[in-house]
Amino acid sequence: MSSAATPKGERRRQALVEAAADLLLEGGFDAVRHRSVATRADLPLASTTYYFESLDDLIAKAVECNGNRDLAVMRSRVDDVTHRRRGRESTVDLLLDLLVGPALISEDCRERLISRYERFTACARRPELREVQLRLRAQLDDILTEALRRSDRDVRQEQLRRLVAVVDGALVTALGEHDPDLRALARAMLLDVVDVVAPALDRPDHVEL
Fold first, then answer.
1. Are 194 and 88 in contact (CB under 8 A)?
2. What is the dihedral of CA 122, 126, 129, 131, to 10 degrees?
3. Any residues with CB less than 8 A from the CB of 56 and at least 6 apart, and which?
4. What sequence ranges are listed for the domain HTH tetR-type (predicted)?
5. Which among 99, 121, 74, 103 is positioned nearest to 170, based on CA atoms?
6. pLDDT one-digit tens code per residue, 16-61
7. Is the pLDDT of residue 81 over 60?
8. What percent of the chain has a predicted confidence (pLDDT) above 70?
9. Which of these, 139, 138, 147, 153, lies nearest to 194 by C-alpha position?
10. Count of domains forming the chain
11. By the 8 A CB rule, do 43 and 130 touch?
12. Distance CA 86, CA 149 (A)
């Protein structure tokens, strides 16, 4: 691999990463091949081996790219959240906006969720993805912490994993069963646990909505 030491080289390298990320989203890991990535990026086939040590290296960068895209959407949503005391249902709906998407799930949103869980399970067989996933998870924890803080909720770091696991389990089940309402099961399960894993702070000067 040669490093992308010039602006042109960096642009080409980034184009390859984004092309691989798009293919990963559309067709899963099997869709990411040297030729398909180069074709999508409109670059010579040799560029994939010039800028990346291996196909696994390119895939790891694509996984991180898609993860960062998801996180950017979540951060934008949290930036719009006002700081006020939220009740159980309002808090759950906010968390679902972040972890699932809008109430009316589009096909693109469904595909992103499928890709997310393909990414998770791939880490079990692809050691090179584990550090990427750990970095993404740390950023997700920060986003969820901020959302809960703005909802006047006690943020318990040790409980964030439990909260996300509840949503992950519900979504994997719903996706596997082709459930058209991906949020419904996750919402029902979160309503059962949110006051335990992220209890409301005792601040009587705030109005609960």
1. yes
2. 120
3. 126, 128
4. 10-70
5. 99
6. 999 999 999 999 999 999 999 999 999 999 999 999 999 999 999 9
7. yes
8. 94
9. 153
10. 2
11. no
12. 10
Residue that the structure tokens 């740390």 belong to:
138
| Pair 100, 107: CB distance under 8 Å | no
- Tokens for 169, please give them: 């389990």
Look up residue 152 and give its two tokens. Answer: 């006047």
| Inside any domain, residue 109 | yes
Q: Please tell me whether residues 91 and 17 are part of one structural domain.
A: no
DSSP 142: H
Average pLDDT over the chain, rounded to whole?
92
d(CA 63, CA 65) in angstroms, rounded, equals 5
Q: 4 lies in which domain range?
A: 1-53
| Residue 207 within any structural domain of the chain | no
pLDDT tens, residue by residue, 107-120: 888 899 999 999 99
